[in-house]
Amino acid sequence: MYDVIIIGSGLVGLGVANALQEHNRHLKLLIVEKESGPAAHQSGHNSNVVHSGIYYTPGSLKARLAKQGNQSMFAFCRQHDLYHDRCGKVIVATQLKELSLLENIYQRGMENGLAVVRLSQNELKMREPYVNGLEALLVPDAGIVNYVQVAEKLAELIQQRGGDIHYHQEVVGIQESSSGVAVQTQSAQYQGKWLVNCGGLFSDRIAKLAGYETGMKIVPFRGEYYVLNPDKNYLVNHLIYPVPNPDFPFLGVHFTRMYNGNRDVGPNAVLAFKREGYRKSDFNLRDLSEVLSYRGFWKIAGQYMGEGLAEIRRSLSRRRFTENARQLIPELQPEDLQPGPTGVRAQALTYEGKLVDDFHFVTGSRSLHVCNAPSPAATACLEIGREVVGRYFGEIVVNKNRLWR
Ligand SMILES: Cc1cc2nc3c(=O)[nH]c(=O)nc-3n(C[C@H](O)[C@H](O)[C@H](O)COP(=O)(O)OP(=O)(O)OC[C@H]3O[C@@H](n4cnc5c(N)ncnc54)[C@H](O)[C@@H]3O)c2cc1C
Description:
405 residues, alpha+beta, D-Amino Acid Oxidase, Chain A, domain 2, 2 domains, five-stranded antiparallel beta sheet, binds flavin-adenine dinucleotide
């Protein structure tokens, strides 16, 4: 009998396990993961950026946990001698109409209590000589790490402290009762007192297995990157971001200086025809038909048809992708870019067609479901774990026999 069973060894599941052990070393913990190691999906297929929290609505969980997460992620990497580089990020307005949006972001940064510096065109040129911009913001706290390395270290620490991680175990059934929860995989059954669902791209289906309707569906969006040819690395010094579209803050190709010396360009965002579909040709009938029969999807598709089609065109043509990226670095040519990695975002969408913006949890009688953990959840994973423990597990950490609500 485990005290807590966590589904998923992405950064969020690992962050929750880490925080539970921080509060009570004696809890008997199990992480059940369907893949062969940690960070096999979103946590290992992302931009590796440690965000600062500048974009997020003041007072939201994202704003608070990104800010705290930025500090704790860098501290974790320092403590364990993992790669990290607080290289800073510039957000660049390339058109006059973006200047007021840039100012809004500055104000938001102030409200969120962040260090943000306004850069004139000349100051931007001194930092990023090849970037075309009218004005920019410098966010010195943003940086990069290697999230796979972070996840591997977390998994190692969790096991050293006595936690179990069982790989190759896909959860296919969940039975809650008044005294605990039974978790069924294809080859084993586990008993626990409490369950935390950190299933990322499958978190909605896992909640359903436990009998909970979350009121939202995960819609997978594939993000495709290009990599700059190494002889063009000089074009990018920092992390370079465009001013985000306030309706779709995750859209907008950016340039990222990576831990391996590469400069990644991307990602875009196109509907994936499979929840873990990393290639354009990947397709899963159940995944796709669930999206296409979902009212929320058609509502948002109707509303933002133009943006969606533009993303698809950019996905199909390197030339169009480059045109978009050239708004920031005009010197860029299609032949400077080679196809790079891809990732799939788990974006929760409500039945009414609203993208769920903030981190979102649903509680059951013996289970907690992390139903929306999009970016900056990698940055914030240690803090999401602490939030979950503080909000929901406070009581069992003190007295294992009490309910969490
Ligand atoms: C393209 C892209 C770029 C991003 N860039 C950034 C960034 O720069 N900075 C940042 O902070 N965030 C970024 N993010 C967001 C960040 O990567 C995610 O928010 C975060 O990794 C989510 O972690 P997770 O643990 O919830 O999900 P995941 O990492 O997807 O983990 C979920 C785990 O659950 C497992 N699982 C699912 N179903 C089952 C089952 N039935 N049984 C057992 N196991 C199961 C999966 O195998 C997986 O390992 C990006 C995301 C993407 C896709």
